[in-house]
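Q: What does the assembly look like in three dimensions?
Context provided by user:
Components: two
Sequences:
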Amino acid sequence: MWRTGCAKGCARGIPMTKTALSVLTVLASIVVIWYLAVAPMNIRVALDQAERTGAAIDPPSAVERRNISVWTLMAQNREHIADGYSLERPRLPTPAQVGQELWRTTGEMVLKGRTWSKRSLIYHGWITLQSTFWGFLLGTTIGIVGAIAIVQSRVIEMSVMPWAIISQAIPIVALAPMIIVLSSQVGIEGRGFPKALISSYLCFFPVLVGMVKGLRSPTAEQLDLLKTYSASGVQRFMKLRVPASLPYLFTSLKIGIAAALVGAIVGELPTGAISGLGARILIGDQFGTPLAIWAALFAAAILAGVLVTVIDRAQQMLLRRMGMRS
Amino acid sequence: MNWLILALVFWLAAWAANVAMVRSKWAETRLVRVVVPVIFGLTLVVAWEALVHAFNVSAAILPPPSAVADTFARSTGMLWEDFTQTVLKGALRGYFIGAAAAFGVAILIDRSPFLTRGLLPIGNFVAALPIVGVAPILVSWFGFDWQSKAAVVVVMVFFPVLVNTVQGLRETDVMLRDLMKTYAAGYFTTLWKLRIPAAMPFIFNGLKVGATLALIGAIVAEYFGSPTRGMGFRISTGVGSLSIDLVWAEIVVAALAGTLFYGVVAWFEKKVTFWHPSQRG
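A: Here is the predicted structure of the complete assembly.
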């Protein structure tokens, strides 16, 4: 799913600056399209607001405006288009507004010394990060143990593998409210555990598949060679299969950690959680503050980027130390 | 106590049967390949039933599978209504729109190597994001009915399909493209006869990822507001009113729908990419 900007481009002899330039161009055009879209998206809200302050609008009442397309409205009320770019509760905020909101809830909070306030996204991000981390740990463990069991035993492979595939076709969100009800009934306090469980559900599968592939990646000749060294089964496993599986493991860990974050946020969405990035989205929806939703979404995106980059770096360091190409 | 012993005996018997089947000479036949996982699934259901009875778990916490099956049989009408609302109207329509849009954009983007290079890392990044969080925004844009659910599904399906299609279109090697040139094939002929078929394994990867995401999107969007039907609506109200057996019946529907959806896409993949090494094994 994830590749650093250079991995593929560099391999084909394209300098990194050229890739970076392309990425920046695409990003810039997205921002331009976004800014252009703000005007038609917000024109109705802007006109409603202008009407309340007593400005002359054509047509004058909101009911009449309902059946007129946004383009006509924009053409008839040119002087109010600009209002759409500075609304307090826009349907579509501008990138600058989202950026300001992000700064207000992160950097500014830190400067004020209120990093862990309930209104700071750093606090909420930390809550989500914890669930992600535990879910990632649990999911990775299940994935690795499952993969070892599958590689070792044909019965387990034939019994479990189809269900592992089916498990991913089952929409986990349908189960999320159930998991939360169940664990609170059983007497597990707080939302940390059910969230971690949901996130591990999404996370284990890529790790399982990647590890099975990796543990099976040594060729027959390599296995034969170890046999001529009279290596025992355990030694063959530890000295050949495990090291050979590491590149596969890290590739799936990158997918897994992104999936774990999705799981943690999904675990917060339908359940009335009060802290965490998913809860910020939920609360923003209930209180009609779209800026809070957008800021939480971007915070989640940044968090995902950081997590994947950390694992990518770890992969490069470890594989280089092991003498493999990364 | 009897229930526990029953579960244990059943488990051991089923496991022994599976071991015997896998070790037998028919291990590679299609029948065994189907029967072994089915038996394993059955043991899980029996264990669930037995544990619920053995520990007297209240039906408000975890109903036994028999109760879920009973509720399922009694409320097929309602379940079907929810299925139409969420899967047929929300998820499937969104899936087709999203996949078609992604395919179209991929073909357009592919004409410019510059844009392709820029788009791939961004697309890969966005495909890994918790996009499902846009659900409340889209529900407030498109209203409570299926349109907003379809919109969430469109956004979720778009990026995996886009990234995979763009990647797939780059897969043909220079020799093959040169060959098409010697046949005097133009851009569209080359695209249609060589590059799109070659991209198919990648496109289906994206479509399969999208198939699992589509249902998630449609259900989550219903948690943020829906008409008084739909699977997400029924699950969230069911949890609130402690009719847990109904929630489990909906989960069964979701599981069946998800598996069926994925299975159909995988079936098409087999038919379309029969030539690919991964399908011949």
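Follow-up: Chain B has two domains: 2-56, 72-280.
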